[in-house]
Design brief:
Blueprint (H helix, E strand, L loop, with lengths): L1 H44 L2 H8 L1 H6 L1 E5 L8 H20 L7 E2 L9 H30 L7 E3 L3 H14 L6 E7 L4 E7 L5 E2 L11 E4 L11 E6 L6 E11 L1 E2 L6 E10 L2 E10 L5 E9 L6
Parallel strand pairs: 2-10
Antiparallel strand pairs: 1-13, 3-12, 4-8, 4-11, 5-6, 5-9, 7-8, 9-13, 11-12
Length: 302
C-alpha cells in the first residue's frame, strides 16, 4: 500500500515537473518571438540607411570607418578664421584660372530635347575640359589640401532616403561597400570630385580609377532633370586610406527660373554606415571640400 502511494507521488511529481518545464519553454519562446517582433517594428520605423547598416554588420566588421574629418561648424573661432584665409586663397586662384563656366540659357520651348542637342552639350564640355584641364587640376590640387569639410551633418527622414534611392534606381546607379551620392533639386550642373587614397581623382573626365572606384551616374550636363543625382561607388572592395569629397558648381542652366544658388545633399555610405551632409553653392564659387573619411582594417586601428 505504501509503495503504491509512493509511486503515485513520484508519478505526480514527475508530471508536475514535466508540465512546469513545458510551461517555461513555451513562455521563453513567446518572449523571444515578442522581442523579434519588436525589433522588426523598430527597424521598419528607422531610416533606410540604418536598416542597411544593420544588414551589413558582417562587412562592417571586416573594415570600418576609423575617423571622419572635422566639419566647419565644429571648429573654434580661431580655426574658422584660419579656414576663411585658406578659402580666400581658393577663391582668388579660381578667379585667376578663369574656371567659371558661362551660363547656358535654355528657352522654355526647349522642354523636349533632341539627341543632337544632348550631343552638342557633351561636345561643349569636352571642349571646355580640353582647354581647362590643367587649370582644373591645379584648383583641385589646392582644394584637396583642405582638411576641413564645409558640409553640415544632417539626419534625413526615411522618405528623403527613399527618394534618393529612387533617383539612383531610376538612373541605374550601382551600390557597393563605399558609395557616395550627390543629389540636388534643380536643372543646374553640379560635379562631384572624389579624391582617392591612391591620389587619383574620380570626376566626369576620369570616371574609373585604377583603385576600382567608378562614377557611374553623371547628370545635367544638359539640363534634363530637376531631380538629378551623381554616384561614385566601389562595388566589392575599397582601398584603405583617406577619401575626400569635393563638389563643384560647374554650370548654371537658366532653365525655368533655375537660380544661381543651389542646395545639395551628399550621402556617404562606408561598409553599411551612412552619413548625410547638406550644403549650398553659388555659381562662381570655387570647388568646396564637403567632407572626408578614413578607411582602415580593424586590426590596423590604433
Amino acid at each position: 500500500m505504501e509503495e503504491n502511494i509512493l509511486l503515485a507521488v513520484i508519478i505526480t511529481s514527475g508530471s508536475v515537473f514535466f508540465f512546469l518545464m513545458l510551461f517555461l519553454i513555451n513562455r521563453f519562446r513567446k518572449q523571444r518571438k515578442l522581442k523579434q517582433q519588436h525589433r522588426l517594428v523598430s527597424a521598419s520605423r528607422a531610416p533606410l540607411s540604418s536598416m542597411r547598416a544593420q544588414r551589413s554588420d558582417r562587412q562592417s566588421a571586416r573594415r570600418h570607418v576609423v575617423s571622419r574629418g572635422l566639419q566647419l561648424d565644429q571648429l573654434s573661432d580661431n580655426a574658422k578664421q584660419a579656414f576663411e584665409q585658406r578659402q580666400q586663397r581658393r577663391v582668388a586662384q579660381y578667379s585667376d584660372l578663369q574656371l567659371v563656366m558661362d551660363e547656358l540659357f535654355i528657352p522654355e520651348r526647349d522642354a523636349v530635347e533632341t539627341e543632337d542637342e544632348g550631343d552638342e552639350s557633351q561636345d561643349d564640355r569636352s571642349t571646355w575640359i580640353a582647354e581647362n584641364q590643367g587649370n582644373l587640376d591645379a584648383h583641385a590640387h589646392l582644394v584637396a589640401q583642405e582638411e576641413v569639410g564645409t558640409g553640415i551633418s544632417v539626419r534625413v527622414s526615411e522618405e528623403e532616403d527613399r527618394e534618393l534611392m529612387d533617383r539612383l534606381a531610376r538612373e541605374g546607379g550601382k551600390s557597393g561597400v563605399v558609395q557616395i551620392s550627390l543629389a540636388w533639386d534643380d536643372y543646374n550642373d553640379l560635379d562631384m570630385h572624389v579624391f582617392c587614397p591612391s591620389g587619383e581623382r574620380i570626376y566626369f573626365n576620369n570616371r574609373k580609377s585604377a583603385c576600382n572606384g567608378e562614377l557611374d551616374v553623371d547628370m545635367n550636363v544638359r539640363p534634363k532633370s530637376k531631380k538629378p543625382i551623381e554616384n561614385v561607388v566601389w562595388t566589392d572592395e575599397a582601398p584603405d586610406g583617406e577619401y575626400k569629397i569635393g563638389v563643384h558648381f560647374y554650370r548654371h542652366h537658366r532653365k525655368r527660373r533655375t537660380k544661381k544658388t543651389c542646395q545639395f545633399r551628399l550621402r556617404v555610405v562606408t561598409y553599411g554606415q551612412a552619413k548625410e551632409y547638406s550644403g549650398e553653392l553659388t555659381h562662381g564659387d570655387p570647388m568646396s571640400m564637403i567632407t572626408s573619411f578614413v578607411l582602415v582594417k580593424p586590426d590596423e586601428e590604433e
